[in-house]
Amino acid sequence: MENNNNTEKGDIERILVPIDFSDYSLNACFFALHLSSRTGAEVLLFHVFFNPMVDAMAFPDAFTYQSNMTEIFKDLEQNAEKQIRKFSKKIKRYAGIKDLKNIKITTEVKAGQPGEEIDNIIRSFAPKIIVIGTRGHGKQSGEILGSVAARVIDTAGIPVLLVTRDARLKEKGELKLLYATDFDESDYQSIHKLTKILSGYSIKIDCVHFSTSSNSKSNSKKMAQMKAHFLKTHKQLSLECHIIENKDLLKGVNDFIEINDIELIALTHKKRNIFYRLFNPSLAKKLLFQTKRPVFVFN
Question: What would the pLDDT profile of 73-88 be if each residue is shown by its tens digit?
């Protein structure tokens, strides 16, 4: 992607990347590095390993059992540290090959449950963005990593970028984004955040409202107001607005993505907004965890 001279370094200071050493995590790290290179943000690679001592505490009188668990814990911790060092070296090699500058990578491992420990690290590290890998296409799309990503979306309170193993980062030319709007007030803030996060890129945003029924006059008025707002507040922003009517909402979204060669999807995750209106849990998984495009979810 081409650099934009208006990059606002400092707006995005820290990026959190929860990892499990899989290809999905690796691809998420590649995306995080490109963001880091353009914003100067620190990237924290964070891994959570199982803590057997929790089970050991259930047997306070079993000294031998607890001693064995202590040894097992040490082995698990050492292995996690070894893996994350190896993983970090691989990420740094990628940064070198791509000639990415201003990269600062730190690592941390914790014992415990992934969801709980990610909540804790969000509070202590205070990232501006979370980039997390998801399994994407295939039978395994709903397994562990997907459930962790779903929890992060629900609890993080900050933008989350979901990246599948198959997602590809466009490094040159204009980046085409789809922002799905339901005309909620939060959309204005989300699009503003999106432009700041991607201020180092040349971007084009298609702001789209998807509907199952015709309410053309009201929707057209709201869309015109939204477009007028962004033309006034973001004069250099390349933004087009669309209203798509389709009884099959998911098909409407996917058709638009394919026809317009969309490379990144963005939406806001709030009750009663487009995320809940368009997608019941099973359809949401199809969009968020089975698309080849990265998905930015705002809270």
Answer: 889 999 999 999 999 9
Contacts of 111 (CB under 8 A, 6+ apart): 48, 49, 50, 51, 53, 73, 76, 77
Query: Can you list the alpha helix ranges (DSSP code H) found in 15-62?
Result: 23-39, 53-56
| Domain 175-298: top CATH class | alpha beta
Q: Which residue has the tokens 């079993």?
A: 62
DSSP E strand boundaries for the chain: 14-18, 42-49, 104-111, 129-134, 160-164, 175-180, 203-211, 238-245, 264-268, 295-298
CATH architecture of 14-164: 3-Layer(aba) Sandwich (3.40)
pLDDT of residue 178: 93
**Cβ–Cβ under 8 Å, residues 273 and 184:** yes
In the chain, what's the furthest Cα-to-Cα distance?
Answer: 74
Q: What distance lies between CA 247 and its chain's CA centroid?
A: 28
Per-residue pLDDT reduced to its tens digit, 237-278: 899 999 988 887 778 888 899 999 999 999 887 654 555 554
Query: Using CB atoms within 10 A of its CB, is residue 44 exposed (0-12), middle (13-18) or buried (19+)?
Result: buried
Q: Provide the pairing of β-strand 160-164 with 295-298.
A: antiparallel
A 10 A CB-CB count for 102 gives: 12
In whole angstroms, give the CA distance from residue 134 to residue 26: 11
For the chain, which residues make up each domain, given as ranges?
A: 14-164, 175-298
Which residues make beta-bridge pairs with 46?
18, 108
State how far the Cα of 74 lies from the Cα of 80, in Å rounded to an integer. Answer: 10
Quick one: which of 62, 273, 29 has its CA closest to 131?
29
Q: What is the SS3 string spanning 83-115?
A: HHHHHHHHHHHHHHHCCCCCCEEEEEEEECCHH
pTM: 0.84
